[in-house]
Amino acid sequence: MTPVLGTVGPSVYWYLTRSTGVVALLLLTVTMVLGVVDVSRWSTPSWPRFVLDSLHRHVSMLVLVFLGLHIVTAALDSFAPIALLDAVLPFIGSYRPFWLGLGAVAFDLLLAVAITSMLRERLGHRAWRITHWLAYVCWPIALLHGLGTGSDVKSAWSLVLTALCVVAVAVAVCVRTLPGWPEHRGVRGGALALTAIIPIGLVLWLPGGPLGQGWARRSGTPVSLLASTAPSVSSPAASTASVQASNPGSQSSVLSGSFDVSLSGSIKQGPGPAPGLVAVKIATSFNGPPSGQLHIEIDGQPLGEGGVSLRSSRVSLGSVPPATPVLYHGRIVALNGSHLVASVASSDGHSLSLRVALAVNAGAGTVSGTLAASPTATESGE
Known about the structure:
The chain is α+β, with helices and mostly antiparallel strands and 382 residues long.
């Protein structure tokens, strides 16, 4: 049987939200580049201006299509509390409100551009031209939205795509502003300066922001997803006791604070503790700081879709070396596809909430993903 993690396997909506968001940003970058360099400058006898204008217009429409899919799938995915209204009214949501609100601002600006473009003849060229400049403001806002809310920000491919988008826009601005220098020096210099601020700002912000530890909590993820406030979906038999470590005070303190790390390991599925049940065992490790191991066991009944209906669970978290006794024991308190929230505690009174997002490679029997840990609301005083 194919190894799976969640009740019905990885959330389709979660994958669609990620992929449509990435495609929308790439298409928006293409639109930005075409608009900045001015499509009329690219026209040739074989590629007349109306063809390039049409390309610009159709790519812009595709951006709205993928943004619509991005918004709908994000609202349908039940893991994060995102409503359709959050995509229109900025900064009112409960999930990372500022960063999600930036996405709403970008969407509203694009809608304004699209609507005024359809009413261009009635508005007049000047009014349409002024409104059309909102598209250029939209791009950096959308870029920050993706970095602030995206679950793949730390992935190499995500960082490469972000860098390519920034470089493409920077090159387009240089192509548009440098020829004809020093005419309109003030406007050209301002455009170059604003363009330089984006990569410099990202280099300064990212290490302590989305690439830093504890970003899930600092970015405004609800306590219900970070702390152990969700109702337990495990059976009473899944209640666990802490394992006494040889030196619990000094050992558990290594993992007692907030941290955000990448995971990698293996997944196996076999017979469960009772007839008709299966057991999913996930063994992962992480090299932070801090460094440690996370083991997850899920017992449940196999479903027709290839998933497992959760009956009980066991979660253990320990620091390295492997010979060190497990410091935290607990269970899963919320499970949705390949996303889960677990509550664990140590024998010396420390308790943590673990937010785990995993990608399962069923064929190879491997998993990778992220772990965001934070003290529970009671312990942290929130």
